[in-house]
Design brief:
With 355 residues, this protein is α/β, with parallel strands linked by helices. The protein has two domains: 1-83 and 147-181 and 316-355, 2-Layer Sandwich (Nucleotidyltransferase, domain 5); 182-314, 2-Layer Sandwich (Nucleotidyltransferase, domain 5), CATH 3.30.420.40. It is 34% helix and 29% strand. The protein has ten helices and 16 strands. The strands form four sheets. A six-stranded mixed sheet has the order 10-6-1-2-3-16, with helices on both faces. The chain has a five-stranded mixed sheet with strand order 13-12-11-14-15, sandwiched between helices. A three-stranded antiparallel sheet has the order 7-9-8. A hairpin with a 2-residue loop joins strand 12 (199-205) and strand 13 (208-215). Helix 7 (255-279) crosses helix 8 (300-308).
Length: 355
């Protein structure tokens, strides 16, 4: 997305998350894409906190090992950021050409973001709707704090790699969604990537992003609630959270905790949808597509479908990507696919997207 980096010939999608780092390398074919490499490496819970990299060496070492173990030779990567350091806002500006807007985007940003424009990297996207009938056009303004971007760039450099594209999670997962799902007409789809520390919501209508939001109510809330409610350590809570067995504890004990946090998450989503409808004059949401590690929480899709009164499904960003079954176990790919949505979306980026 941001246009101040170098132009490589190929990119690896690198998703630096709170609980793990993930990499996806694709090869473009005459029709579609082929999976070349895929990797995931865990991070200690305190390595990245609230989007801030607390242990840069741990992250760069994890990335380096992941590339080595999965024989990923490309050095140019597309990376994304999320959380409170990222602002994505739909604004109306006087109708003008993209080049004119680029020259004045800093002034426009000053009216809409709480940070000094000197402290952020700015970009924008003119929305498909064009002129809104008032001599204005709708623009998606993106601002990311420079200190956060610089942290990620430093980690990538320390891993022996080069950052060619810096994106935001909401747009990366939208890019992946467009690969495996076709949206027709004015269908309104809410994409939700439930990570460890952040749940990213991106509402798209007719294939165009209309509203994005990052919430801190995510997978870690379940872990912390299980720790507090059942007296577990972090590792035990993580195992129980994903439906595993822990000696001395029954999965049935987790149900009240899950119901409580599921209710909180549903409420957060409902408020986001209401804000979208009221502030963006958006239509009703037609369906929800989940991704991220949190999408695999026991019975979460069915709970959200009932609570939101909407169809809710788990997306598979690898569904339309060919993969050699001799190299990639199909069952493993099906299991891991929801976690790879951001990585796939980044891997699909063209070098000129972030030149």
């Amino acid at each position: 997305m941001f246009s101040w980096l170098s132009r490589p010939k190929g990119l690896v999608g690198l998703d630096i998350g709170t609980s793990s780092v993930k990499a996806v390398q694709l090869r473009r074919l005459r029709k579609g894409y082929q999976l070349v490499a895929l990797g995931i490496a865990p991070l200690h819970p305190d390595t990245i906190v609230d989007g801030l990299i607390m242990d840069a060496d741990a992250v760069s070492n994890a990335v380096r090992r992941m590339f080595e173990e999965n024989k990923i030779d490309l050095k140019d990567v597309a990376v994304s950021v999320s959380g409170h350091s990222v602002i994505v806002k739909r604004i109306a500006v006087p109708h003008m050409k993209a080049d004119e807007l680029r020259g004045g985007i800093a002034w426009e940003a000053e009216q809409h973001i709480p940070y000094s424009v000197e402290d952020v990297n700015l970009d924008f996207q003119i929305l498909r709707s064009g002129d809104n009938g008032k001599g204005e056009m709708d623009v998606l303004l993106v601002a990311v704090k420079k200190d956060i971007v610089n942290q990620y760039l430093a980690v990538i450099s320390a891993a022996g790699l080069r950052a060619a594209v810096v994106d935001v999670d909401a747009f990366a997962m939208e890019n992946a969604f467009e690969m495996f799902e076709k949206v027709g007409g004015d269908e309104v789809v809410a994409l939700m990537n439930i990570g460890a520390a952040v749940t990213t919501i991106n509402v798209i209508r007719g294939g165009c992003s209309e509203f994005t939001r990052d919430s801190s109510l995510a997978g870690n809330r379940y872990t912390e609630s299980l720790q507090k409610g059942l007296g577990l350590n972090y590792e035990q809570a993580e195992i129980l959270k994903m439906g595993g067995a822990v000696q001395g504890h029954d999965v049935a004990e987790t149900r009240p905790v899950f119901e409580m946090v599921n209710g909180e998450l549903a409420g957060e989503i409902r408020r986001s949808f209401e804000f979208y409808r009221s502030s963006m004059q958006g239509g009703a949401i037609d369906r929800v597509v989940l991704s991220g590690g949190g999408s695999r929480l026991p019975d979460l899709p069915s709970y959200l479908s009932h609570a939101l009164e909407l169809p809710v499904e788990i997306g598979n960003p690898l569904r339309e990507i060919s993969a050699d079954p001799g190299k990639f176990d199909p069952e493993y790919l099906s299991f891991i696919a929801p976690q790879m949505a951001v990585g796939v979306g980044l891997a699909l980026r063209e070098p000129e997207d972030g030149a």
